[in-house]
Specification:
- The chain has two domains: about 70 residues, no CATH class; about 55 residues, no CATH class.
- It contains five helices and four strands.
- The protein has a four-stranded antiparallel β-sheet with strand order 1-2-3-4, with no helix packed on it.
- The radius of gyration is 25 Å and the shape is flat.
Length: about 160
């Protein structure tokens, strides 16, 4: 990404973050699904996630819109009430990563999956895998326990 592209992206994000769109989440899942699948009528569900398009607030101000209209708090924002459960569905456990060799240009290591990696010091921020953790059924059976269900996966798991 070029410097001008990064500058443009930062400008866009700054504009969206400055809008501080106020969301009033307050419709239960069943009525929301009924509305969205045309099973029931009701007032429009405004679900604008990111706020007005870049430049639109200035145009609205020029047309006399109030701050509340621009940040969309003048409209009832209705979306389903959501809940979440903190759960780790990925890899658990395994050996600590370790460095096998370090040269002037790269660090060769062994990651927690058991694969060899190479991190190029001058050009990379993520290590490149040299091989893969699973190459046979026996290797898969050795790694499979790291993905099995247990109660410890819930919470900070």
């Amino acid at each position: 990404m070029s410097a001008s592209d990064r500058k443009l992206m930062k400008s866009i994000l700054d504009n969206h973050n400055a809008l501080s769109v106020k969301k009033q989440m307050g419709i239960r899942q069943e009525p929301y699904l009924d509305y969205m699948t045309f099973q029931a009528a009701g007032p429009p569900l405004i679900t604008e996630i990111f706020g007005p398009l870049v430049g639109l607030p200035d145009e609205w101000r020029a047309q006399g819109a109030s701050s509340e209209e621009i940040d969309l708090s003048a409209f009832t924002y209705r979306a389903p009430l959501m809940a979440s459960v903190s759960v780790n569905t990925g890899w658990r456990g395994g050996p600590e990563p370790r460095i096998l060799e370090e040269t002037e240009d790269a660090v060769l290591g062994l990651d927690r999956y058991g694969r060899r990696t190479k991190l190029f010091k001058k050009t990379a921020s993520l290590p490149h895998p040299i091989d893969y953790p699973v190459g046979s059924m026996d290797e898969w059976l050795a790694l499979k326990p790291h993905y099995l269900f247990d109660e410890g996966r819930f919470g900070d798991g």
